[in-house]
């Protein structure tokens, strides 16, 4: 009895072409928004048929790595140095999913705040302070305040020194960006929120890791309580 044929060669070819496209992006230092060479040029470079190249590009587009623009070309979409990327085809979050994400942040961010207090350089902490300066000047401007606040959390995560955890946090923030804007509206006391951020910064700059962890935990619990009350209402 003969074995069922399996298209090993075809699957291997697609994998190889996909890897070579990614390697080209990396080796050429292409960043999000940069255009790749034409399909014909890539086909000739990798010695594959154009339909095979297009299939590899469609595979990369499905994961959010590139964007195929009709009549324009193929563009890098994601930062391929990232270890962790979010699902580009996700649905809008429901209340339960939002609470799950906030709980995940509550588990991760206090650890990152503590690690930043131990590991961040003075120059990096100046960058963190600059984010809060921008937030302080934008307390009456929702869009600018949201961006500055989220950049504060992202930067603090990055300064902790763990690239994987920082990217997990970055992805969690990206996942509920729209909901976070609504939370800003619910969390009506912007001055209080800003002072909490300043207190976290002071603990991190003062090299007080335990205090930084505690303040971040309390801050995120307050945010989650606000969301729970809103969902119940």
UniProtKB/TrEMBL annotation:
All copies of the HTH gntR-type domain together span: 11-79
PROSITE patterns (UniProt xref): HTH_GNTR
Kindly indicate where the leader peptide sits in this chain: none
Q: Can the keyword DNA-binding be found in this entry's annotation?
A: yes
Please give the superkingdom of this protein's source. Answer: Bacteria
Q: Which UniProt keywords apply?
A: DNA-binding, Transcription, Transcription regulation
What GO MF annotations does this protein's record show? DNA binding; DNA-binding transcription factor activity
Among PANTHER family, the record links this protein to: TRANSCRIPTIONAL REGULATOR, GNTR FAMILY, UXU OPERON TRANSCRIPTIONAL REGULATOR
| Descriptive protein name | GntR family transcriptional regulator
Traced from the root, the source organism's taxonomic lineage reads: Bacteria, Bacillati, Actinomycetota, Actinomycetes, Micromonosporales
